[in-house]
Amino acid sequence: MSSHPSQEYAIHTQGLTRKYGEVEALVDLHLSVPYGSIFGYLGRNGAGKTTTIRLLTGLAQATSGRAWVAGHEISITDQPSKNKVGYLPQEPGLYPWMKGREFLIYIARLLSIPPREIQDQVDRALELTNLTPAAHRKIGGYSGGMKQRLSIAQAMLGNPSILILDEPTSSLDPAGRQELLDTLAAMRKQVTVFLSSHILADIERICDTIAVLHEGRLMLTSSREQLFSQYPVFAASLELEADFIAPQAFLDELGERPWVERVARRGQNITILAKDVPQGKTELLPMIVKHAIRIDKYEWIRPSLEEIFLKISK
Amino acid sequence: MIPLAYLLSILGMVLVPIVLAVILRRNYRVYWILFVVGTLTFIGSQVVHLPLNRWLVSIGLLPKTLQPDGASLWRTAVILGLSAGVCEELARAIGYALVKWARRFEDGIMLGLGHGGIEAMLFGGVLTASTISTLLNLGGVDLDTLNLSAAQLEILSLQRQLFSTSPLYAMAPFIERVLAISAQVTLSIIVLQAFKRNKMLFFLAAVGYHAMLDSVAVYIGISTNQLWTTWLALVILLLPAWLWLIRLWRARNSELALMGEKSPSPPPLGWSLRLFLANSRKEILYLWRTRRVLIVCAVFFLFGIISPLLTKFTPQLLGSLEGAEIFADLIPEMTVIDSLNSHIETVTQFGFIVVILVGMGAVAGEKERGTAGVVLSKPLSRSIFITSKFTSQVLLYLLGFVITCAAGYYYNIVLFGMLDLSIFLVINCLLLLWVLVFTSVTILGSTLGNSTGAAAGLALAGSLILIISGSIPNIGALLPSGLLAWCYQIAEGSLDFSSNWGSAALGLVILLLALVAALGVFERQELQ
Question: Are the Cβ atoms of B374 and A154 closer than 8 angstroms?
């Protein structure tokens, strides 16, 4: 007998809808996030990402539909299973009058972490987020990045099996961003990460499943590999040597070839959009040799996640 | 012994509806707002029901007083039953129409508990408290010396006999209210069926059933004057409905089982208690770190010393001012009674402002900063979030009043030579209750407001309404202002602890309802 999907997936929603009067913030969302995956949740501003996260964390009430997190139906009422979920909001909500360490101890108590483990877990979270030196300072005196890191620390306390992160890298410096992404990537298979972000490079780098939301509607859910296989190699990119000027004859011949759709020039870069990629792969290199084109780089490229995202959410 | 039995009965009538609602909420995740809706449907129904009955009396359809005389009593009982049935069920139906999302069996129970609960609190708890304190005050008074009509004297002497009966008799109003609550819950479920099944017939059945229950209760109650007979008749009439409710409940369980769903098990009590303690601890730390504890302690210390100092030294201060010596002679010699009166005035004039300033940001501030969203994404429930905030503030004001009592008692003794400690303690206990009523109103304002400024405005508006409504004839004496009148009475030297139980009971009711309303509103709010 097969179990209910809510038990099979870390996060599962059925027709989740949230309306604000006439405005449809989220419409009929059917989503299944496998256990152990790093799930990238993409969408433009106002697409409904934060609304989804609020519904999944029990901070908002769905107009219709249902949602399960860690096998438990999410409700705005008491939810003991919430200690399996770590949540990082878009804006770090912290008490300025508390000290960093005090705040984490308070959160640990809310998560019912046994008292003998609280110190260890708090120390580990502080270390992980490089906040140990500032642990005894008031949060009110923290910088924006430190607040974001403390917020990440509270989300990771109690070893949650699911992490719901809303724009986690937005206020971090490049080093902090790199560290966080490495930490999340290292959690793959052990922890389910539901990651909403505008920074597509982050999503492209660590997510194994990607969903795109547009105007409250889910446009696409796919594994990273599948997504890129749907948008295969489509162009050749040439980077010419610094002083080299491409002969007009080469460009004219390219334009006449039947496998070429369009040729675009930008500084020392030439991008050749192909209608027939295999034919292009056969003919392009001999042409380069024939016209003695001096190149630094030659590669066949696929669309970036940004280009796919823009195409889907157009 | 008998006053204590009545005190228990009154507390039962005020607290039992809340306790039942807490159990329902914990076990079946029913929203608190339905209790509030039930409360409002009852209050709304009475806004129409009471004037309607007065109008029926004015046109002669109802008698001015109920008399146990056969045929006309039946007619009176039926008209009274019908007016109650139509008004209350209509209000209940409007309530259901407003909460379209509440169509579960347990939702109906919660709405019924709110409706029957406020009825028990007001018509049971507050009314009994008011009556008992009046009777206690008349304990040693010769009734013939009072300017009362023969009918009033007869009722009064009958009521005074309550104190020569068994203490168990004090439980009578409580038992009656429990029966009434069960009837209200039953009627609430019947009206719910009208919406669930889209059949008007259930609404008409509820009106008819309500009318029948009330008619029988009035007829048997007046004609036999025997409580047991009335209760027995009500139980017999309610029994078929209760059996029907059990059937509906079983059908609901089977339906859930068919859908493969089960009611979530309630969180363990110990676990909830640990979360409550963890959050209360944080709230106390917040009050400490933000200097609120120090400010409240300083202000309450001033409350304690300023009245005896000013009372004692005002004539001397005036006398020392050049040209004002003449006024000093006009001021009579000040006593400890003047000092106590001044103390009550000081606490009430500034007390509620302190309460608003301390509590206005309690919930609104957390919503504004986004901290509420972070902590409520953890297993902390919204109920615990609100109640721990209230508890920490109760502890703060308790500390404030301990300081006031210590400082005030010392200064009064030093300056006036004498003060009955019990009098001073009772006055401050009543003032504490008065302050706590405003604390819960402020928490409600803070929950309703989305910013600290808006919360302050709402809390101030609510507090002013409470203060101003103290001057409404008849009702005013029962509102928190009645507590102050009681304080002044005690200050005058008459150590009468039974003066106005009604205002204390209503104070407790307002406090509880404001908290429940805050829970109800907060549970439905979307957080950042």
Answer: yes
